[in-house]
């Protein structure tokens, strides 16, 4: 069972797990009643995105003796600190239900960690691309301001900005932002 | 590297938010980044792997870790209580109507007992209806213990007569609206939201169940406390000053404004301001009687980590079978609660601290004075609504006198460990 508000990520994870021979019992977005769903679907393993608040519901189910099944969080022995670290940093957690041994579940979690990391990397790439586009725009604007105010040619204005950045140990884009902000004030 | 501290979007993350927004952390030379978390399990796991250096926690969480019933958590300590009170039990409008019909006098008595609810439950049982469902927020949450305490005092067995489930705080109102639950125990502003939307009725506040009872704590790993004592002290000094600021009545509207931001609670400011300024609406068009102690952030020695508070919480873990084997309750409490570290920080910022670690609960019906390090401290009442007294010197007798306790507790073995 996969609980993830990110449908695209859940779909990719599901596809990979099926390739590995798993059967996906349910894919939830984490908005319904998780306790009822677990009781109904009876999964062996629950993979849940850490950004889903429903984790606490699973925590509680693991301690109620009269309800079956009883999911327990992976790594209860804490011996596997590297895996738990990797999972937390990737933002995913796993709950084992029907007394499966951690050895059988570990490969499933490893797949989940890998898929979650892929999505994080993808998001970072998008952010980098967006910010470098914004950097280029602000540098162009600063260059235009310097050219106009100092009566410099384009390459001279660029060299001046670069020297300011080096002298002040700042990124070129940050110096450009300051130039633009100051020009807006005056 | 700034310290990363976690919190959950609730009104009682106020002291952490104020410490960051009003510059108390910086004044004490600590650079802090606050991290909004969606679940208590995430806070526990991020602390365990070092992704957080400290966090707002339910008072039961570090204790559960210390007695081995939450094996994922590392050893934790707390030297600072973030607040007293702050929660309430809310039932759906439909259940409230049934409670009024079943026993109007009991439902309208303050503090409201669960006697009317018991009549409803008895009626359901006769008609072979499924049990009512109540939600709280975490197995080791004060909410769990308060709700159980309130139910059990009316003879309702929280494990068999109702069904208890966990729902994350921001989802409580939605679950009530969908009929997935019939009532809940949660912190603000989520009770007020249910009332505001005409979906529920606040039947009893945490203050009414146990006057000035412990709620959230600020916890760090024991390793952090041991390896970074100066940094830990600086954090505590900042938190004590932030708590004093937060508790000032004139500042409560500012607190509501800070918390309304999406970086903190992300709820409408008027909704937050209600309970923060001591005006809680119990029902639609209901009375907005003043409840000045609904949230207590500093006065009444609220920030002091009372070892006896920890012992009461451990006693609840025993009472409800979460803790299956007997333990030395005082020793377990002292491993986690560090009043000595609080006293050091309080002394440094000129705040009076209690000189004793333990106090009996349920013995003061009104304001009283406690001898502190800098003269006497004005304390608040500490009554339980059912009149019981918790003497930390005799946990076994307290549990022996608690009805509906888990059958597996061996009271003789417990007495042997707690002489």
Quick summary:
Chain A has 186 residues and is of the alpha/beta class.
Layout of strands and helices, then pairs:
The complex is a heterodimer of chains A (186) and B (419).
Chain A: E1 2-3, H1 7-19, E2 27-28, H2 34-41, E3 45-49, H3 55-61, E4 72-73, H4 81-90, E5 92-96, H5 102-150, H6 154-167, H7 172-185
Parallel strand pairs in A: 1-2, 1-3
Antiparallel strand pairs in A: 3-5, 4-5
Helix pairs in contact in A: 1-5, 4-5, 5-6, 5-7, 6-7
Chain B: E1 3-7, H1 14-21, H2 24-27, E2 32-36, H3 40-48, E3 54-58, H4 60-66, E4 76-81, E5 84-85, E6 87-92, H5 93-102, H6 104-108, H7 115-126, E7 133-136, H8 142-153, E8 163-166, H9 172-177, E9 183-187, H10 190-196, E10 200-205, H11 206-209, E11 216-221, H12 222-227, H13 229-247, H14 252-260, H15 269-276, E12 295-296, H16 307-319, H17 329-336, H18 339-348, E13 368-372, E14 375-379, H19 395-400, H20 411-417
Parallel strand pairs in B: 1-2, 1-3, 7-8, 7-9
Antiparallel strand pairs in B: 3-11, 4-11, 5-12, 6-9, 6-10, 13-14
Helix pairs in contact in B: 1-13, 5-7, 13-18, 14-15, 16-17
């Amino acid at each position: 069972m996969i609980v993830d508000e990110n449908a695209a990520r859940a779909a990719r994870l599901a596809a990979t797990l099926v390739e590995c021979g798993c059967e996906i019992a349910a894919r939830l977005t984490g908005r319904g009643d998780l306790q009822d769903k677990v009781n109904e679907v009876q999964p062996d393993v629950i993979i849940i995105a850490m950004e889903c608040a429903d984790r606490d519901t699973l925590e509680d189910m693991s301690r109620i003796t009269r309800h079956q099944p009883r999911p327990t969080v992976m790594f209860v022995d804490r011996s596997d600190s590297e895996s738990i670290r990797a999972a937390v940093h990737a933002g995913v957690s796993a709950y084992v239900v029907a007394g499966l041994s951690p050895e059988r579940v570990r490969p499933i979690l490893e797949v989940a960690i890998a898929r979650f990391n892929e999505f994080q990397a993808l998001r970072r790439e998008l952010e980098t691309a967006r910010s470098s586009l914004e950097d280029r725009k602000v540098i162009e604007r600063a260059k235009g301001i310097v050219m106009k105010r100092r009566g410099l040619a384009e390459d001279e204005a660029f060299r001046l900005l670069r020297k300011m950045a080096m002298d002040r140990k700042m990124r070129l884009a940050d110096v450009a932002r300051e130039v633009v902000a100051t020009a807006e004030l005056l | 590297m700034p310290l990363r501290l976690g919190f959950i979007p609730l009104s009682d993350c106020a002291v952490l938010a104020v410490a960051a927004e009003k510059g108390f952390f910086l004044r004490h030379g600590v650079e802090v980044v606050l991290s909004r978390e969606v679940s208590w399990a995430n806070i526990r796991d991020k602390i365990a792997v070092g992704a957080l250096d400290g966090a707002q926690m339910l008072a039961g969480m570090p204790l559960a870790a210390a007695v081995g019933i939450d094996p994922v958590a590392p050893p934790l300590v707390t030297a600072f209580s973030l607040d007293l009170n702050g929660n309430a039990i809310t039932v759906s409008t439909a259940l409230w109507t049934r409670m009024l019909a079943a026993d109007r006098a009991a439902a309208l008595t303050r503090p409201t007992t669960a006697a009317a609810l018991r009549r409803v439950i008895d009626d359901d049982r006769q008609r072979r209806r499924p049990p009512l469902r109540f939600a709280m927020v975490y197995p080791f949450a004060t909410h769990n213990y308060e709700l159980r305490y309130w139910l059990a005092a009316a003879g309702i067995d929280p494990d068999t007569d109702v069904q208890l489930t966990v729902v994350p705080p921001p989802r409580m109102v939605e679950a009530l609206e969908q009929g997935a639950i019939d009532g809940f125990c949660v912190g603000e502003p989520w009770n007020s939201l249910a009332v505001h939307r005409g979906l529920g009725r606040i039947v009893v506040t945490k203050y009414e169940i146990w006057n000035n009872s412990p709620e959230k704590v600020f916890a760090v790993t024991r390793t952090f406390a041991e390896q970074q004592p100066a940094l830990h002290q600086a954090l505590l000094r900042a938190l004590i000053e932030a708590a004093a600021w937060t508790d000032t009545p004139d500042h409560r509207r500012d607190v509501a404004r800070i918390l309304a931001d999406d970086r903190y609670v992300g709820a409408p400011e008027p909704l937050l301001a209600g309970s923060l300024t001591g005006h809680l609406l119990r029902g639609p068009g209901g009375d907005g009687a003043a409840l000045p102690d609904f949230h207590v952030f500093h006065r009444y020695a609220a920030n002091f980590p009372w070892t006896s508070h920890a012992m009461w919480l451990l006693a609840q873990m025993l009472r409800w079978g979460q803790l299956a084997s007997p333990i030395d309750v005082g020793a377990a409490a002292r491993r986690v609660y560090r009043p000595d570290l609080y006293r050091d920080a309080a002394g440094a910022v000129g705040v009076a601290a209690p000189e004793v670690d333990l106090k009996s609960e349920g013995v003061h019906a009104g304001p009283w004075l406690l001898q502190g390090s800098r003269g006497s401290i004005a304390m608040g009442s500490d009554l339980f609504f059912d009149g019981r007294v918790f003497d930390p010197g005799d946990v076994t007798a307290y549990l022996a006198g608690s009805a509906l306790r888990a059958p597996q507790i061996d009271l003789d073995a417990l007495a042997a460990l707690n002489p």
